[in-house]
């Protein structure tokens, strides 16, 4: 039983006990059910890539697509087998798809190519007007397709995603997801879900059925006009296997004049797994670092520094040739990453203006501030300076925040503790002043200075009355000289 779970990273027994053609609750808002859609809509080809996928999850994905898509709109289903080794994905699958009521074509890669290149193979054979990508362990719900295609009819440069509901990896229960989340990312360039800000709710006039402009997409499930897919640069073929392609496309679409939306009237369920059951040629870590570094190099301008600060190991991983991707950006006259942060994702935890980025080292102890991997609400720690980025990377911003990814140093009381609290941008407990001459970090609200831990066995910095001792002197790493010069200029003015 456990071996079967580890093989797929979901409960295969539960999946095998459920009908391949099961009924699902209609989870849409009532208002969605009555929405009018254009009489003439484009056709779509649904592209599904798989590698060693379980039979029941793959076939259930196919049947839910067929059963809940208007026949006139579903041109075909394209399956791409990325070098699977499972017997049931061989002749058995070839024979099975010939019995389906919708044209279903199967293509196989010659060797393990990964999601990105396998999707490109599938897209090459698309005959529909729109390409809809789905993962191989999904279930489409009633009315999922029409809202996506209708948005593309209105504007072919709009890339649309459904609300991605949860199919439990243990029970296969269908669980409706919130319509109040959108896609973001952290300093490590990991995709994250965040609450939709009031700004976007106001733009939609409070209508929760209206399309939601999202900064990034999860990447597994989306629809895009076929011609626009190629005009905008399809996928970065220099990326390997999987990971980072969703952020690359998100940045590219927004920066190059397109739009990325979540359509609340469209719901598709997805089996979310805690980890991938598949091996990555070259190793997971190297693949992820390589792909994300290409995103940083091509699309993020100076904000790519955050990625390298958090992942210095990426500097040792070959990025490959990005000349063509940069040329694509020039040809499409794409906007800067600053524009993206200012106009599309002002809620991002990447500061627009920052002075220092890297470790913050205590002059007396030579130890560094360290998040210790803590989440929001946990106390700030210290540790031996390891130079490996990650937990010891902080940014000192023009707004006088000391940030580590989503969190800011926060002190609610003169006696502490100093905690990592989600950055709120309202100064207060999160405002600090760094004097580059005295090297002191002063907490504005309390007037106290950041000091070394009270004893060598307690690895937590404290606030004390400012005294300019070496224990209150902090060295902020200056990797980016232009930022440091700006701090000196702003201090003088």
Automatic annotation (TrEMBL):
Reaction catalysis annotation: L-threonyl-[protein] + UDP-N-acetyl-alpha-D-galactosamine = a 3-O-[N-acetyl-alpha-D-galactosaminyl]-L-threonyl-[protein] + UDP + H(+); L-seryl-[protein] + UDP-N-acetyl-alpha-D-galactosamine = a 3-O-[N-acetyl-alpha-D-galactosaminyl]-L-seryl-[protein] + UDP + H(+)
GO MF assignments: carbohydrate binding; metal ion binding; polypeptide N-acetylgalactosaminyltransferase activity
Pathway(s) of this molecule: Protein modification; protein glycosylation
Subcellular location: Golgi apparatus membrane
Record's keyword terms, sorted: Disulfide bond, Glycoprotein, Glycosyltransferase, Golgi apparatus, Lectin, Manganese, Membrane, Metal-binding, Signal-anchor, Transferase, Transmembrane, Transmembrane helix
Protein name as annotated: polypeptide N-acetylgalactosaminyltransferase
EC number: 2.4.1.41
BP-aspect Gene Ontology terms: protein O-linked glycosylation
Keyword Acetylation included in the entry's annotation: no
Keyword Manganese belongs to the record: yes
Membrane topology: Single-pass type II membrane protein
InterPro entries given in the database record: GalNAc-T, Glyco_trans_2-like, Ricin_B_lectin
Cofactor: Mn(2+)
Main location: Golgi
Family: Belongs to the glycosyltransferase 2 family. GalNAc-T subfamily.
Domain annotation Ricin B lectin: ranges: 354-477
Enzyme class: transferase
Domain of life: Eukaryota
GO-annotated cellular components: Golgi membrane
CDD domains for the chain: beta-trefoil_Ricin_GALNT1-like (cd23433), pp-GalNAc-T (cd02510)
């Amino acid at each position: 039983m456990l071996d079967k779970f580890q093989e797929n990273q979901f409960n295969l027994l539960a999946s095998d006990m459920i009908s391949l053609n099961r009924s699902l609750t209609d989870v849409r808002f009532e208002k969605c059910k009555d929405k009018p859609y254009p009489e003439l809509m484009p056709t779509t080809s649904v592209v599904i890539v798989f590698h060693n996928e379980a039979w029941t999850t793959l076939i259930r994905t196919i049947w839910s697509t067929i059963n809940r898509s208007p026949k006139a709109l579903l041109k075909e289903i394209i399956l791409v087998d990325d070098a699977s080794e499972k017997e049931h994905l061989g002749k058995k699958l070839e024979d099975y798809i010939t019995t389906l009521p919708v044209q279903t074509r199967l293509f196989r890669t010659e060797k393990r190519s990964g999601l990105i290149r396998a999707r490109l193979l599938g897209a090459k054979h698309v005959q529909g007007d729109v390409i809809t990508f789905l993962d191989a362990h999904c279930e489409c719900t009633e009315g999922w397709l029409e809202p996506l295609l209708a948005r593309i009819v209105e504007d072919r440069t709009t890339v649309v995603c459904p609300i991605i509901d949860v199919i439990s990896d243990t029970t296969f229960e269908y669980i409706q997801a919130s319509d109040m989340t959108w896609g973001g990312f952290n300093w490590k360039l990991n995709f994250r879900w965040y609450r939709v800000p009031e700004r976007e709710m106001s733009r939609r006039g409070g209508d929760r059925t209206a399309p939601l402009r999202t900064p990034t997409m999860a990447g597994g499930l989306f629809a895009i006009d076929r011609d626009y897919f190629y005009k905008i640069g399809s996928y970065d073929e220099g990326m390997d296997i999987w990971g980072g392609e969703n952020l690359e496309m998100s940045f590219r679409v927004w920066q190059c004049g397109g739009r990325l939306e979540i359509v609340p009237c469209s719901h598709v369920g997805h089996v979310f797994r805690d980890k991938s059951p598949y091996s990555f040629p070259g190793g997971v870590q190297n693949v992820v670092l390589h792909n994300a570094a290409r995103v940083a190099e091509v699309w993020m301008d100076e904000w790519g520094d955050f990625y390298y600060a958090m992942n210095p190991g990426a500097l040792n991983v070959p990025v490959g040739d990005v000349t063509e991707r940069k040329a694509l950006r020039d040809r499409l006259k794409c906007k800067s990453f600053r524009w993206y942060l200012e106009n599309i994702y002002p809620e991002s935890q990447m500061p627009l203006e920052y002075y220092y980025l890297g470790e913050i080292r205590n002059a007396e102890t030579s130890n560094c501030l360290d998040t210790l991997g803590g989440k929001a609400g946990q106390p700030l720690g210290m540790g031996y300076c390891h130079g490996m980025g990650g937990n010891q990377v902080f940014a000192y911003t023009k707004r006088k925040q000391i940030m580590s990814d989503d969190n800011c140093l926060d002190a609610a009381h003169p006696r502490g503790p100093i905690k990592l609290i989600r950055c709120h941008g309202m100064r207060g407990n999160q405002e600090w002043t760094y004097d580059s001459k005295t090297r002191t970090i002063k907490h504005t609200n309390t007037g106290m200075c950041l000091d070394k831990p009270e004893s060598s066995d307690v690895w937590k910095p404290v606030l004390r009355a400012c005294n300019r001792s070496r224990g209150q002197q902090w060295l902020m790493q200056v990797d980016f000289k232009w930022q440091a010069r700006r701090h000196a200029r702003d201090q003088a003015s």
